[in-house]
Predict the structure.
Amino acid sequence: MSAASSSTAFAVVGLSPGRTDALVRALEGAGRLVAADPRRPADREAVLRQAPAVVLVGAGDDPRAALDEAARFARAAEVVLLAPAPDAELLRAAMRAGCRDVLDPADEVGALRDLLAELGERGPAAPGRVLAVLGCQGGVGATTVTVALGHLLAQDPGRNVIVTDIDVSSGDLLAALDLPAGTTTEDVLRRGGAIEVERLRRLVHRHEGGFAVLPQPPEDLDSVSMSRRQADDLLGLLVRAFDDVVVDLGSALAEAARGVVLASDHVVLVATQEVPALRKAARRLLILRDLGVPRERVHLVLNRYHPRLFPSLQEVADQLRHPVIATIANDYKAVNAAIGAGETIFEAHPRSAVARDLRVLKARIFGEAEPGRRGWLR
Ligand SMILES: Nc1ncnc2c1ncn2[C@@H]1O[C@H](COP(=O)(O)OP(=O)(O)O)[C@@H](O)[C@H]1O
Ligand SMILES: [Mg+2]
């Protein structure tokens, strides 16, 4: 691996072309520049396409904006914030944003060269995938879908999966899974970034379904709210501790949820065939587009679907100008039996149409072979 370490691929964002040039010269031999984007925000996709192991983010005169930028890259690469004379607060914030270090490019080129070599040798860390589940309105099944995806992802013994709740209007994961009192999102946030990955893994509740759960606290659900920064902090921690993080966003696309959708590999938008729900879904799709969430990452699902009801699947897709990736059958009894028992649908009613449809949904999201229909029809 030493050959790779002598030329670690790095990108520079948020730094003027002149300063970037100077930096590239100073780092010659330790790393090779694969992408540079002086803008803020930088074109994340374009930069990451060049597969940098390390992204250097210039702090400029707005460290807060630079930290947002750092957090966007921290899930895909090692990030180093370039800031002159960082104070303790900035260091802490940078750590929370997932930065590897904060270095002064004028003063600490030696340290930066060493770090590049070291990070190149180890390769980029592999932070977890993020799946966000968003309901177009309350009650359409966001929590049901979240729990189901958590269960299905956890079927892979190689993946450590967590399901969490950043629903700022009324998180109900705790109730849906009938969890005992345990660690909540609030407990984790109270500890700030000062929580180790191993410890976090031990602290969270493990569900019978094979996944970890981090719910919102039960008390005063209406008064619990999470800021954008708290949501970013929480997600930053979770992706370091788990391979898959499934986030129940409920139906409010508030600031906290916006940070999450931007950081997500997949956003599942849950709607139903009812007209009000579809109208809200149309608005959610526009917001997601305006936020810059790539269209192919947004998966529209129709829950409580009935093929004989109107509008039809095709009409929905035409109206919303977005394909419907999957439908989920309407089976109130099965779904509520599961919720009543604190189980996932796969534990309570593994052969139900709802369970089957959710397996298909998961396969389609991840581009996997679809589970065949078992039984005599086959
Ligand atoms: N496929 C379905 N068929 C029938 N009822 C469903 C289905 N999915 C969800 N429900 C019911 O809808 C209600 C709300 O579901 P939930 O997942 O909590 O929605 P949200 O989190 O969007 O508010 C629950 O009572 C649940 O039993
Ligand atoms: Mg819910």
